[in-house]
Design brief:
The protein is built from seven helices and two strands, in the order ααααββααα. By secondary structure, the protein is mainly α. It has a two-stranded antiparallel ribbon with strand order 1-2. The termini are far apart.
Length: 149
């Protein structure tokens, strides 16, 4: 039987150094683990990360802390998205300036997704208060209202 060469794959062996690198990257980026693993070929695949979370308590704690830190990156992005009015208005075929509702809707989705993640991952800080039953308009909703007025 001829020998077949094994294709080199992603690493699966846990090391504290690699765990630190992974958690540092997660804490300072808004990207998810799937995308980060794809961009960093020397990292294990996402499934292996989840296995490490189950097997290595120290990695699990470090990962949880990294995800909490990542929320601060999301909060900064929320502010950037809300403050970016560069594409709120466009010029239509008649040469008139009109509201770019597609961009505004996409901005709302981006903000709402980040808010949802913040509320789920750090509910004590960013979660909805159980005593607050009044709906609060989002930043984008207030911006849209200002454009209409």
């Amino acid at each position: 039987m001829p020998k077949t060469k094994n294709k080199p794959g992603r690493p699966t062996g846990y090391t504290p150094e690699l765990a630190n690198e992974i958690c540092d990257s997660i804490a300072s980026s808004s990207k998810g683990t799937k995308k980060l693993c794809k961009e960093n070929q020397h990292w294990p695949c996402q499934d292996t990360l989840f296995t490490w979370l189950k097997k290595h308590t120290e990695f699990s704690e470090q990962y949880a802390q990294a995800k909490r830190c990542q929320i601060e990156v999301f909060i900064d992005e929320i502010l950037d998205i809300a403050d970016d009015s560069s594409q709120d208005e466009v010029i239509n075929e008649q040469g008139s300036i009109v509201c770019n509702s597609e961009f505004i809707a996409r901005s709302r989705l981006r903000i709402d997704t980040r808010k949802w993640l913040a509320a789920k991952l750090v509910p004590k800080i960013y979660g909805a208060s159980k005593n607050d039953n009044t709906p609060c308009p989002t930043v984008v909703e207030r911006l849209m209202q200002n454009l209409i007025d």
